Amino acid sequence: MDTAQRTPTPADLETISRQLGRPARDVVEIGARCICGNPLVATTAPRLGNGIPFPTTFYLTHPVITSAVSRLEAAGVMTEMTERLERDEQLAAAYRRAHDAYLRSRDEIGQRTGVGAVPEIAGVSAGGMPSRVKCLHVLVGHSLAAGRGVNPLGDEALDGIAEWWTTDRCYCGGAWDESGPVPDRDLSRHTKTQGLSPDELEAKRAERRAAREAGQDAGEEGLS
Ligand SMILES: [Zn+2]
Question: How far is the CA of 213 from the centre of ligand 1 (A)?
Answer without folding.
Answer: 37
